[in-house]
C-alpha cells in the first residue's frame, strides 16, 4: 500500500489508501483513522472516512501544510489493521412490501429471482458501512451480491419516506429522513437512523456492520413504523 496525499482545500488533505472499493479495505481504513486521530491530536478539526480515502481537516493556524503532511506520513508508517478495532453490528428490521418497496418487482425481473428470494438474499448478508453522506445519518453500505445490483432510477423521486431501504448498483442504504432519492426501494425500517439526542447523531458509523431482518407488517407497526405508501406522502 502506497498512500497518496491530495490537496482538497487550504486546510484539508485527502489521504488515498485504495483505488478500488472493497470490504477488505475497512480494517485498514479504521487503523489509519486511529493513527491519524492520535497523530494530529488537538490540531485535528475533522476526519472524514470514505470508501478509499480519509479527508483530514486540520488547524491551519497551528500547523503548516508541510507539517500536516509529515504527521500523515508518520501516522501511516508501518500501518497494519488492529484486530481489536471493530465497529458495532446493527440489526435493522425491515418490512419488505410493494407498497413501500415498489422496486421489488423490478429487481425480481432483472435478477430472474422470485420476490421472496430477492428479500431473502438481501437480508441474509452482513453489510459494511463504508461512509456517511448525502443526508444526516445516511450510511452507504455494501456490497450487495451482483444478482441484486441495479442502477439508480433515471428520474429520482421528489420524496422518499424516512426508513426506506434501497439498492443502487452494489450499495444498499436506508434513508434516515424524508428526502429526494433515486435508489431502488425494496422496503422500510422503523429504526431511527438519525437522532440529534444521540452521541454522534447517526445510528451507524463507518466501520460498523449491518444486517437487515425481514419482519411482517404487524411487527413493523408495533416498532413504530410508518406504513404510508410512497404515493400518499405529503
Automatic annotation (TrEMBL):
UniProt entry tagged with the keyword Lipid metabolism: no
GO molecular function, one term: hydrolase activity
InterPro entries found in the cross-reference section: CT_C_D, Cyclophilin-like_dom_sf, PxpB
SMART domains cross-referenced by the UniProt entry: AHS1
Pfam families attached to this UniProt entry: CT_C_D (PF02682)
Stored Gene3D superfamilies: 3.30.1360.40, Cyclophilin-like (2.40.100.10)
Ranges for domain Carboxyltransferase: 3-204
Keywords linked to the UniProt accession: ATP-binding, Hydrolase, Nucleotide-binding
Superkingdom: Bacteria
Protein name in UniProt: Kinase A inhibitor
Gene: kipI
Amino acid at each position: 500500500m502506497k498512500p497518496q496525499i491530495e490537496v482538497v482545500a487550504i486546510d484539508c488533505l485527502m489521504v488515498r489508501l485504495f483505488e478500488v472499493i472493497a470490504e477488505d479495505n475497512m480494517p485498514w481504513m479504521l487503523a489509519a483513522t486511529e493513527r491519524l486521530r492520535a497523530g494530529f491530536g488537538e490540531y485535528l478539526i475533522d476526519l472524514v472516512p470514505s470508501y478509499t480515502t480519509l479527508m483530514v481537516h486540520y488547524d491551519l493556524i497551528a500547523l503548516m501544510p508541510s507539517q500536516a503532511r509529515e504527521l500523515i506520513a508518520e501516522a501511516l508508517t508501518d500501518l497494519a489493521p488492529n484486530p481489536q478495532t471493530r465497529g458495532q453490528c446493527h440489526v435493522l428490521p425491515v418490512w419488505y412490501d410493494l407498497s413501500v418497496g415498489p422496486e421489488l418487482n423490478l429487481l425480481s425481473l432483472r435478477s430472474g429471482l422470485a420476490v421472496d428470494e430477492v428479500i431473502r438474499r438481501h437480508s441474509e448478508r452482513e453489510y459494511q458501512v463504508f461512509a456517511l453522506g448525502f443526508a444526516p445519518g445516511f450510511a452507504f453500505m455494501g456490497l450487495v451480491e451482483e444478482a441484486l445490483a441495479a442502477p439508480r432510477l433515471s428520474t429520482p423521486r421528489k420524496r422518499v419516506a424516512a426508513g426506506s431501504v434501497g439498492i443502487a448498483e452494489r450499495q444498499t442504504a436506508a434513508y434516515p429522513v424524508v428526502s429526494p432519492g433515486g435508489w431502488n426501494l425494496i422496503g422500510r425500517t422503523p429504526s431511527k437512523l438519525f437522532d440529534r439526542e444521540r452521541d454522534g447523531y447517526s445510528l451507524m458509523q463507518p466501520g460498523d456492520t449491518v444486517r437487515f431482518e425481514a419482519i411482517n407488517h404487524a411487527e413493523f407497526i408495533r416498532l413504530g413504523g410508518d406504513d404510508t405508501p410512497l404515493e400518499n406522502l405529503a
